[in-house]
Design goal:
With about 900 residues, the protein is of the alpha+beta class. Helix content is about 50%, strand content about 25%. It contains 26 helices and 25 strands.
């Protein structure tokens, strides 16, 4: 288009003006303007360049050539400059015109859009007014309602037709109409157009119910008329929520104030916002109300670590401590459980701290006392050898106390259950224990079968006796939960009871076979014990005297005499010997030697024991032996001296036996016990298992040695075989013991029929043989002995003890030695003892005792002598009355 315009302008120039005319560029100026107007600045500049070339080529001489370019350039410069001016001028006015046109078009479009938007706004406004949840009421200057939306209809109960054109009086209660009119007038007069004021009013429903409203009143000018618009909202529920919030806040304040723990709320500067009543008292504050005060000013002695905890809490790091010691400025020590928790505001930002504390000082004191009580309980269980246990039958979990672990011999902390417990029970008792426990479980609800048993445990190589007792536990619904019980180590008690039972058996056996009538009565004359000989000696019609009183058994005079004798013994606290006359078992009168003596019991009770010997025949024979009175007196004197000597020897034998027992306990048993205690004292919870088992092994060996020593001692003191099986088996056991203990080889030869019928003879023979064998060990320096038992003259037992030792001089065998005591005892039973010894050859001891029962006359004499010995041993000068041990020192009483 630009080239066409240039060609057109050239044609016009050539048509109207000659080529030689000086106005070579005149016709091109309109073309430049037209090009710029139609095509823009670029094409206009192109036309300028093209027109300058054309004008120079055609209209400057030399014509139709470019030979003189310098003159052409000089003439074209004004054209170019002026043409450029035209270009920019036209472009400027063109753009300005376009801009104005566009502005007019935009204004026209905006005007149309405003009209459309206004129409849409009116539609939307009507929709908003009709659909809004708030009631909207608009009144004109005459306070007549011109707008009453559906929400207002629902709020007040009136229809739009009923309200439009009327005043607001029907919507306001009469009591508040005057106040409302004043407030409306103030708002109408003072508020600027478009501004709104907010207030709370009381409205009235069509049915007469009043309700609170929040009103937003604004005024605006519409077509020169002031329109007042009131936006109303029923705030009944909000009031209820606010009241509930106020109530909740009051309850929260009461909760904080009356909380059973110390709790306080702080802002970020650690100023008190609220706190419980306990806070000031528990933290030793002189102020009852700390609200608004600074925490660090109230408690300046707070340590730096707590201040750091507060700073961490304000940084969002909560903290707590279940046991914290607070040493106050006055030196008082208090234990606290506390927690520090940051609280956040409505913007979820940390606004302060909530600190709760609880004074647990009493709890700590109780815990300390509880630990002390638990330690005392463990010590008490250890001292009493009583352990406790609890079994949860639902989970089969068994828990033991420390003492229970010790009793069962298991390491403390070993996991336990019922099966492990049964494995510790002795195999012979296991079924019985399980049966009793299952029976107790089946009858747990009624407790018809209580669990209380005694059984054995296998602890290593040892067997322990325990007594168990349990109470079953039920839950609230009556379901079985488990059981709680105790375990008592009664091994020592069992051994003592067995020893007591054995002693009672020996006593009963001795008293049953005693030729002396024996009895025990209390201070009221009530029989506590009577041996069988008593019934055969006296005229007693009652078959069992135990529990009967003397007055119910004997005639009154005789009973009174016996009661007086009992009271004399109690009053003097010494034995009394006298001869009394009373009826014998066959009803005939008889004389009896009776000895009554006091018996002191452990509970400070006093009983009176008595022994009686029928001396009727002796009394009758006194007349016959009066002629031999002098000889009898001499014999009696000798016997008395002999008995006194025997009594002294009994005392010395007792002391020797005590010395031997002391030597055994002190030199053998006590070092073992001390070693065991030393080994066990090194045990603790941190003892390695290897060391623990090594110590247990050592202690086990030492316990075995103690048990063996106790068994040897028991065998020495009271050989059971001699009463159970006879003299032969007892000597066989003695030979084995002597060979094991002293390495003494004993050749035992025993003929048949050599068993004495009298137990006392068997005991004397056994003790005499043992004494002779011990003399061989001590003095003969021989490692072999020949022991031969034969029958002599059908009624005598001959025992020969021969050794091949160093021998001794028999003339040096004097009274007071053990052999002399053996001889006297044998002579009292109708036997004898002969000793033959040669230096460096050996010694032969021959012992003879009767095989049959001892003659009655000798028994009577022995009983009288025994009565004299007892009388002598209970004399005031001889100390505390007690039965003396025999001359052999065998420990039997």
């Amino acid at each position: 288009m630009a080239i066409g315009i240039s060609a057109l302008m050239l044609l016009i120039r050539m048509a109207f003006l000659p080529i030689s005319n000086e106005l070579a560029y005149l016709a091109f100026y309109p073309g430049v303007a037209i090009t710029v107007f139609l095509c823009g600045i670029g094409p206009g500049i192109l036309v300028i360049a093209l027109d300058a070339l054309i004008a120079d080529f055609i209209f400057h001489s030399p014509y139709w050539t470019f030979k003189d370019l310098s003159s052409t350039v000089r003439s074209a410069v004004p054209f170019v400059i002026s043409s450029l001016g035209i270009v920019f001028t036209v472009a400027f006015f063109q753009k300005r015109t376009i801009r104005r046109v566009n502005l007019l078009e935009h204004e026209a479009a905006n005007h149309k859009g405003v009209k459309d938007e206004l129409a849409d706004t009116r539609i939307r406004l009507a929709g908003i007014i009709d659909s809004t949840l708030d009631a909207i009421v608009s009144v004109n200057a005459a306070q007549r309602v011109i707008i009453f939306n559906p929400a207002a209809e629902q709020l007040f109960g009136y229809t739009k037709a009923e309200v439009l054109g009327s005043g607001l009086e029907r919507l306001i209660p009469c009591l508040y109409q005057e106040k409302h009119a004043e407030h409306f007038a103030d708002c109408h007069a003072g508020a600027a157009s478009g501004s709104a004021s907010r207030t709370e009013l009381i409205g009235v429903h069509k049915n007469g119910n009043e309700f609170p409203m929040e009103a937003s009143i604004s005024k605006s000018a519409v077509a020169g008329e002031v329109i007042t618009t009131i936006v109303l909202r029923d705030i009944t529920k909000r009031r209820e929520v606010e009241d509930a919030l106020v109530k909740s806040r009051r309850q929260l304040e009461i909760f904080i104030r009356e909380a059973p723990i110390s709790i306080a709320m702080f802002d970020r500067e650690m100023n008190y916002i609220a706190h419980s009543r306990r806070w000031p008292s528990n933290h030793a504050s002189s102020h009852s109300d700390l609200s608004g005060r600074n925490h660090y000013e109230v408690y300046p002695d707070i340590p730096e670590r707590w201040r750091q905890i507060h700073r961490d809490g304000l940084a969002g790091i909560p903290a707590h401590n279940d046991e914290d010691l607070w040493v106050q400025a006055n030196g008082q020590r208090r234990w606290l459980r506390w927690s520090v928790i940051p609280w956040r505001d409505e913007h979820d930002e940390i606004a302060g701290l909530i600190i709760s504390t609880e004074d647990i000082t009493p709890t700590k004191q109780i815990e300390s006392a509880l630990r002390l009580s638990e330690d005392d309980l463990n010590r008490a269980q250890a001292v009493g050898r009583i352990g406790s246990w609890r079994l949860d039958v639902r989970r089969n979990e068994l828990s033991w106390s420390k003492e229970n672990y010790r009793i069962f011999g298991l390491p403390e902390g070993t996991p336990l259950n019922y099966e492990i417990f049964l494995a510790c029970v002795h195999p012979d008792d296991r079924a019985m224990v399980d049966r009793e426990w299952q029976a107790a479980l089946r009858n747990a609800a009624t407790n018809a079968t209580p669990y209380e048993i005694t059984h054995r445990l296998v602890v290593g190589d040892a067997v322990r006796w325990v007594k168990e007792k349990a109470e079953l536990e039920l839950d609230a619904e009556g379901n079985l939960v488990g059981g709680f019980g105790i375990t008592q180590d009664i091994t020592d008690i069992k051994q003592v009871r067995e020893a007591l039972l054995e002693s009672d058996n020996r006593f009963s056996s001795f008293m049953s076979h005693s030729p002396v009538a024996s009895w025990i009565v209390d201070a009221d004359g009530r029989y506590q014990y009577v041996n069988p000989r008593y019934y055969t000696m006296f005229n007693v019609a009652v078959e069992d005297l135990t529990g009967k009183v003397i007055a119910d058994v004997f005639p009154r005079d005789e009973a009174n005499s016996v009661i007086r004798a009992i009271r004399d013994v109690i009053a003097t606290d010494h034995p009394i010997e006298l001869i009394e006359s009373c009826l014998k078992s066959d009803g005939s009168p008889g004389d009896f030697l009776k000895i009554r003596f006091p018996i002191h019991l452990a509970d400070d009770r006093l009983l009176v024991g008595g022994m009686a010997l029928d001396i009727t025949e002796q009394r009758l024979g006194e007349c016959q032996i009066k002629a031999a009175n002098e000889q009898l007196s001499t014999i009696t004197t000798e016997q008395a001296a002999h008995l006194r000597e025997l009594s002294g020897e009994l005392t010395r034998a007792e002391q020797r036996e005590r010395d031997r027992l002391y030597e055994l306990l002190h030199d053998h048993v006590q070092p073992l016990l001390v070693a065991m205690r030393f080994e066990l004292s090194g045990l603790s919870e941190r003892t390695p298992p290897e060391k623990l088992w090594k110590i247990v092994g050592t202690v086990r060996e030492q316990i075995t040695e103690v048990i063996q020593a106790a068994r040897n001692l028991g065998t020495q003191l009271n050989p059971p075989l001699i009463m159970e099986r006879g003299l032969g088996p007892a000597l066989e056991s003695l030979r084995n013991w002597m060979q094991t203990t002293y390495d003494l080889d004993i050749s035992l030869k025993s003929a048949p029929g050599i068993e004495p019928t009298d137990l006392s003879v068997r005991l004397l023979c056994f003790n005499a043989i043992r004494e002779l064998l011990l003399n061989v060990v001590k003095h003969a320096n021989s490692d072999c002995v020949d022991l031969t038992l034969t029958r002599e003259n059908d009624d005598m037992l001959q025992v020969v003890v021969a050794d091949h030792g160093v021998g001794f001089v028999t003339e040096e065998w004097h009274d007071g030695t053990g052999l002399s005591n053996i001889r006297r005892r044998l002579e009292m039973l109708g036997g004898c003892l002969n000793i033959e010894s040669l230096i460096d050859v050996g010694t032969v001891a021959t012992l003879r005792v009767p095989l049959g029962p001892i003659r009655r006359e000798r028994r009577l004499s022995d009983l009288r002598n025994l009565g004299k010995i007892i009388t002598l041993s209970r004399a005031p000068a001889s100390g505390t009355p007690e039965f003396s041990e025999n001359a052999m020192g065998d420990g039997s009483r």
